[in-house]
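thread from #wetlab-drylab

HS: before we spend reagent money on co-crystallization trials with phenylalanine, can we at least see a predicted complex? here's what I'd submit
DV: go for it
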Amino acid sequence: MTEEASVGRVEEVKSKALDELGSIESLEQLEEWRIAYMGRRGQLTQILRGVGSLSPDERRSIGAAANKAKATLEESLTQREQALKDAVVADLSESGAIDVTLPGWPAPLGGLHPTTRIVREICEAFTFMGFQVVEGPEVEWDHYNFEMLNIPKDHPARDMWNTLWVDYTDENGETPMLLRTHTSPMQARIMENQSPPVRVIVPGKCYRYEATDATHEWHFYQVEGLAVDRGITFADLKGTLFEFARRIFGQERKVRFRCDYFPFVEPGVDMSIDCFACSGKGCRICSDTGWIEIMGAGMVHPKVLEAAGYDHNIYTGFAFGMGPERIAMLKYGIDDIRLFYSNDLRFLKQF
Ligand code: PHE
């Protein structure tokens, strides 16, 4: 069924529609109104549908009038809809149900992970002293992780690193690939690729076949340092690391060096700082010793220099390696290393 079409009929429908629109009070009524006039079977829609079967003259005049009426109704609809929505908000805020002057929800911003934070802080302390930051591969060859560092196959020193081997056998029946157990392989990689002087700092992730507990994780970060040049002595090592400790833990820190063994340094040391919690008197944090071990270090072993192609009669250097999580634990008073990588927002949000 189509409406009988005439310009008069179009005007009639339009003014009826506009009349009714004036008394509409809700968005539901407004939708009913839209359907009644402009829906699929709406009154104006019917007229428009009938236009096609008219004579060309009628088609032109009635078609134009109907299209104009449609545009008018659509515009009035939009205006009425906005007015109704504004009224709803005004009502709610007047009755106190919502306070439109309140700020919106804050967009949650992430923060830096405590490891990222401390690694950056450590790197900054060393770049300030002229070191350059470089990174290396996490999947490493036995060659760099051990051989080049004066730790030959079947040498008992390998027991110092609990290793995760990659399940890959080469043509000689060897399994030469592993997840690096420390960042020290970068010492060899850098010296192979660069002639002295070298001053680098290497942050990166390491992995060990390790049962986890409050002070051990099977994956963790290390920051390695290496300086090689003519005439570098143990005094340079001490001065550099002392300056580092004071930057991270405070100007009043004291440091202590004790002999330790790592196959790629000679002599090798471990470095401790006096306990910042009790100033060396002895407390829970320092296990009543007054000192806290923070890293291994030493003078680069002549065999390591030689393997990488440096003449050990001309060049000497020092190297060190530390665990940034451990440094962060000391600095921020964190008592379990497992917190770093358990993705607990209650922990992470504190940084
Ligand atoms: N790579 C050693 C470790 O993982 C630390 C170290 C680095 C010691 C450099 C001496 C020199 O235990």
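DV: The pocket of phenylalanine is lined by residues 182, 184, 224, 262, 265, 296-298, 319-321 (CB under 6 Å).
HS: ok that's useful, forwarding to the group
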